[in-house]
Amino acid sequence: MNWAIFVSSHLRYDIAYYHSEIAKMLKCVNSENNFAIYQFVG
C-alpha cells in the first residue's frame, strides 16, 4: 500500500513526525544509508 493512500485513510498519521519517519525509512535502500527490510506479516 502506498503511503499517501494509507494517510488519506488514517488521518491521525498525517503529521510531520510520521512523514519524517517514513522519509527516513524510504532512504534505507542501500548499504551507504544503512539497510533495512520492512515486511508485513499478518
TrEMBL record:
<protein>
    <submittedName>
        <fullName>Uncharacterized protein</fullName>
    </submittedName>
</protein>
